[in-house]
């Protein structure tokens, strides 16, 4: 439901009604990232999120129907942030698969290393998020498929095969990253980027 336009008496602390609502939502999402990255889904309550965010529970329900809705929004927003950054890192013109893939994979690994809480939200979550995770795999596969298409004309000639190859590729990358994040990203990032790039190039050339 849309909030009423701010009017006389609705500005408080230098913020309008809409600004205060946006601030509360931002704090709730930030608290959710911190809590769901550290605990299992069932160990986090709405009260926990509100307490950490310093937001009243009644305001929580202005933005989210329940805890599950919060997690779905959180997962979608964090993945959207990651995919946007990967797309922005893609070279406009690459003369090889390695040249196209390496910058994107380097950005992916770097962002996960720099934002470990978001990494855990994306790759390590409650089982009930499995359907959402499958959707994310397809979103990532679509992104990589579009960006790599000009460099794989032979494979792209068979559309079904190309889509399945890219999906399998992204699923494999995700499993490697899940293992890396699960072990607290102890292995150096640069060799991981080399390994993932080599894996992708080998599969796409096969």
UniProtKB/TrEMBL annotation:
<keyword id="KW-0238">DNA-binding</keyword>
<feature type="region of interest" description="Disordered">
    <location>
        <begin position="1"/>
        <end position="21"/>
    </location>
</feature>
<dbReference type="InterPro" id="IPR050109">
    <property type="entry name" value="HTH-type_TetR-like_transc_reg"/>
</dbReference>
<dbReference type="GO" id="GO:0003700">
    <property type="term" value="F:DNA-binding transcription factor activity"/>
</dbReference>
<protein>
    <submittedName>
        <fullName>TetR family transcriptional regulator</fullName>
    </submittedName>
</protein>
<dbReference type="InterPro" id="IPR001647">
    <property type="entry name" value="HTH_TetR"/>
</dbReference>
<dbReference type="Pfam" id="PF00440">
    <property type="entry name" value="TetR_N"/>
</dbReference>
<dbReference type="InterPro" id="IPR009057">
    <property type="entry name" value="Homeodomain-like_sf"/>
</dbReference>
<feature type="domain" description="HTH tetR-type">
    <location>
        <begin position="22"/>
        <end position="82"/>
    </location>
</feature>
<feature type="DNA-binding region" description="H-T-H motif">
    <location>
        <begin position="45"/>
        <end position="64"/>
    </location>
</feature>
<dbReference type="GO" id="GO:0000976">
    <property type="term" value="F:transcription cis-regulatory region binding"/>
</dbReference>
């Amino acid at each position: 439901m849309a909030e009423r336009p701010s009017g006389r008496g609705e500005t408080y602390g230098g913020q309008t009604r809409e600004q205060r609502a946006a601030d509360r939502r931002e704090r709730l999402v930030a608290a959710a990232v911190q809590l769901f990255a550290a605990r299992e889904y069932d160990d986090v309550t709405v009260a926990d999120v509100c307490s950490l965010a310093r937001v009243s529970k009644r305001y929580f329900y202005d933005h989210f129907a329940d805890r599950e809705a919060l997690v779905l929004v959180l997962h979608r927003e964090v993945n959207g942030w990651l995919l946007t950054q990967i797309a922005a890192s893609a070279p406009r013109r690459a003369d090889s698969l390695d040249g196209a893939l390496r910058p994107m994979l380097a950005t992916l690994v770097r962002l996960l290393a720099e934002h470990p809480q978001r990494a855990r939200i994306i790759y390590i979550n409650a089982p009930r998020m499995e359907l959402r995770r499958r959707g994310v795999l397809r979103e990532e596969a679509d992104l990589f498929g579009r960006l790599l298409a000009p460099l794989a004309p032979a494979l792209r000639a068979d559309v079904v095969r190309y889509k399945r190859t890219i999906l399998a590729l992204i699923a494999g990358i995700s499993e490697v990253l899940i293992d890396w994040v699960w072990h607290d990203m102890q292995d150096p990032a640069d060799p991981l980027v080399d390994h993932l790039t080599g894996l992708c190039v080998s599969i796409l050339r096969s």
